[in-house]
Every structure is written in C-alpha cells, then in structure tokens.
C-alpha cells in the first residue's frame, strides 16, 4: 500500500504543495491511496497527464472512478444513500459515444468566431462593473465587484438565463464546489438549480429568444431533462471557473510587481499573459480523475484495468520538460499547450470564451485602475483551499 494521499493545502498560495512538486522531480507517476482505500495512481508529469486525457482507454464515468480526498468520499456516500443520479445531459461525466452526441450539438455554439463576436459585449459588461466599483467604497472586494459578475452576466446572456436569479445559483454553486458541503445541502442545491432551469426551458418552448438554450430547445434533438443537464453544466462551469481565474490572476499580478509592470508597459503581452496565468495557476487542483478500462502502459508503468488515475494539473503544468522555469510567472512566455483547459474529448468547451473574458477583464482593470493594489497583506487574502476549484474567496483592493 502507498501512504501517499492527495491534499489541497498549500505551502504558498500561488504554488502547488511542495510535497507533490518534489514527487514530480523523481517520477511522473506515483502510487496513491484514495479516500476509499483504493490503490491507484497520481500523475505529476506533463506528458503522462496529456496522454491520459487523450486516451479513450481511460474512462470519466463516475461509477468507475474513486474520490481522491475524504471530503468527496463522504459526499459521494451521502448522495448515493439519497439515490441521487447525475442528470441526463450532464456530459462532463460521460464517455464516447454518449459524450460525443452532446458535444457535437454544442460545438458549433462555441467556435472561435462566435466567441469573438461576443467581445464587444464582454467589454461593455466589464466597463459597467468597473464604473460601479469606482463609484463605490474603498477598499472593494474585487471578487464581488468584478471577477464574479463579469463571467456570470456573460454566461447568463449567452444561455438566456435571467441575471436577476444570479444570487440564487451563485450561492448554490458555492455549495456544489465546497469540499466541506453536506450531502443533503448538495442535493438540495442541485435540485434547486435543476428545477429553475427546467422551468426556464419550458418557458423557452413557448417564448424562444435569441440565445443558446432557445436554439437547443428549437433544435428538437434533446429532451427537456437532457436540456436541463446541459444547461446546468454550462451555467455553473461558465461562471465559476472564469470568476476564479480573474480573481486569482489579479492576486498573482498584484503580488508580482515586476510582471505587473511588464504587462502595464506592453499591453500587447495580454494574450501571452492570459495563457501564462492559466498555466501557472491551474485552478483545477483536484483531478481530473480517470479509470483504466483495460491494462494501459504509461511511461513504462502498467496501469491495471480498474485502477483510478488522478492528474495533478497544477504540478504537471510546471513540468520543466515542457515549461522550463515553469515555477516562475513570466507573462512573456509562450505558454500554449498547457493543460489548464484539459485535453482530448473533454477539453473545456468554453475555453475560447474564457480566454476572451480574461483578456478583456485584465486589460480593463489595468487600464481603468492604474493604481490598483492589494488593500491587505498578501498572506491575509483568504484562499479557496476548501473548494474543488482553487482561487480567492475575497480580494480586498484599493487604487
């Protein structure tokens, strides 16, 4: 048995845990004991992580994988006891060909061209948030004033979800991603979001709009239950991930005056900076987890059929074999090829939208607030080590 277990606690807020970085220096794969006692693997090497994500012999189905941390195990037990099932249409936890069916229906909605068409509106939303922020009190919480409302409003408009309901689903989203959330609370949150979206889909059948959900409803390929699962995934993922990148990325830049100065002096570095922040910070810090459908040889090691594999993406994205000097933030680095959006068939569907939101958001912040700075010492910023997606709970700033 291995005494290696996964943890979300960090030695420094902007770096992966030292223990796992040290492991990566020795080998790309390591035996790991999962929360339920399952003996599986932890992947810390970039090439190995990319290979797992691209290989159809590794499954993403929840009934085959194992929870990597105790909090997820307890939640899984409570949810299973209640008989709660992953909703139809929640294609994130499916393999091909079921996953392929949903993905194809949505791929055309998230093309680079379509996402680029949204850039002016994203800019308007960012400017409006900054208007309110500047008119308010100082210090301000950047998460509440900017990092959360920008992607939240964008995804609501894209899907056709009334933004007035944001507080409800944002609160429920925190419950879903909280590592300490009780099973009953998670089920209640999922039920509330699902019921709200199911009702919205019914409404769009009678009064369709010019939005993504109305288009899916009108297409006729999906049932209302499937539409609810698809909408659930897009709504929650669409604001939670980018919001945390905007908050954590700003924290990283404000904590590194040299890199911040480079970006202020040369705004043309923004595209590079977005990719580098995605790589360097890698907010998906608990997995993904896969299960081998058959014996698979990886980096000279055989992963046996049925064994779970957890990818430590924050460490893999700093692998010096792929990103020399990767432990340091460098906004001039060409960081393409990182795994922050995943890889393979489950690579993030909304990655182009997220890139635009970050590019526009960071640029607007730096332009509008040239004196932007932390209002508290960096060590006093509360970090999301208690959440399945990393970031900052709050970011007190002034200018």
Q: What is the topology?
A:
Blueprint: H1 18-26, E1 29-33, E2 39-43, H2 46-54, E3 58-59, H3 70-81, H4 98-107, H5 112-117, H6 119-135, E4 140-141, H7 142-147, H8 149-159, H9 166-177, H10 183-206, H11 212-219, H12 224-254, H13 257-265, H14 270-281, E5 289-292, E6 296-298, E7 301-303, E8 308-311, H15 313-316, H16 351-368, E9 373-374, E10 396-398
Parallel strand pairs: 2-8
Antiparallel strand pairs: 1-2, 3-5, 4-10, 5-8, 6-7, 9-10
Helix pairs in contact: 3-10, 6-8, 6-16, 8-12, 9-10, 10-12, 12-16, 14-16
Can you walk me through this structure?
With 399 residues, this protein is of the alpha+beta class. The chain has a domain at 70-280 and 339-398: Cytochrome p450, CATH 1.10.630.10. The chain is 50% helix and 8% strand. The chain contains 16 helices and ten strands. Strands 1-2-8-5-3 form a five-stranded mixed beta sheet, covered by helices on one side. Strands 4-10-9 form a three-stranded antiparallel beta sheet. Strand 6 and strand 7 (301-303) form a beta hairpin. Helix 9 (166-177) runs antiparallel to helix 10 (183-206). The chain starts with 17 loop residues before the first helix and ends with a strand. The model has no long low-confidence stretch (mean pLDDT 94).
């Amino acid at each position: 048995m291995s005494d290696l277990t996964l943890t979300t606690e960090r030695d420094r807020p902007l770096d992966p845990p030292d223990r796992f970085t040290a492991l990566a220096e020795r080998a790309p794969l390591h035996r790991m004991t999962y929360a339920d006692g399952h003996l599986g693997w932890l992947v810390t090497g970039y090439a190995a992580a990319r290979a797992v994500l691209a290989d159809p012999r590794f499954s993403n189905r929840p009934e085959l994988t194992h929870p990597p941390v105790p909090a997820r195990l307890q939640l899984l037990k409570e949810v299973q006891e209640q008989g709660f099932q992953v909703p139809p249409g929640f294609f994130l936890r499916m393999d091909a060909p079921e996953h392929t069916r949903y993905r194809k229906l949505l791929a055309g909605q998230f093309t680079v061209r379509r996402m680029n068409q949204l850039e002016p509106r994203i800019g308007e939303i960012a400017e409006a948030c900054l208007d309110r922020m500047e008119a308010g009190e100082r210090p301000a919480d950047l998460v509440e004033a900017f990092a959360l409302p920008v992607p939240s409003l964008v995804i609501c408009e894209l899907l056709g979800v009334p933004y007035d309901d944001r507080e409800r689903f944002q609160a429920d989203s925190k419950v879903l991603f909280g590592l300490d959330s009780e099973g009953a609370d998670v089920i209640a949150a999922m039920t509330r979001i699902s019921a709200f979206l199911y009702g919205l889909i019914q409404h769009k059948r009678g009064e369709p709009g010019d939005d993504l959900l109305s288009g899916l409803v009108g297409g006729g390929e999906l049932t209302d239950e499937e539409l609810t699962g698809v909408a659930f995934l897009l709504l929650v993922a669409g604001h939670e991930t980018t919001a945390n990148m905007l908050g954590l990325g700003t924290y990283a830049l404000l904590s590194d005056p040299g890199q911040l100065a480079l970006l202020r002096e040369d705004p043309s570095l923004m595209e590079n900076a977005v990719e580098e922040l995605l790589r360097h910070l890698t907010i998906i810090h608990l997995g993904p987890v896969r299960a081998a459908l058959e014996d698979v040889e990886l980096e000279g090691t055989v992963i046996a059929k049925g064994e779970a594999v957890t990818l430590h993406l924050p460490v893999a994205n700093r692998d010096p074999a792929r990103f020399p000097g990767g432990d340091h933030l460098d906004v001039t680095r060409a960081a393409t090829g990182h795994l922050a959006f995943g890889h393979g068939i489950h690579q993030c569907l909304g990655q182009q939208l997220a890139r635009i939101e970050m590019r526009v958001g960071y640029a607007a912040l730096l332009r509008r607030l040239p004196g932007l700075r932390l209002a508290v010492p960096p060590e006093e910023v509360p970090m999301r080590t208690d959440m399945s997606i990393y970031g900052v709970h709050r970011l007190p700033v002034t200018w």
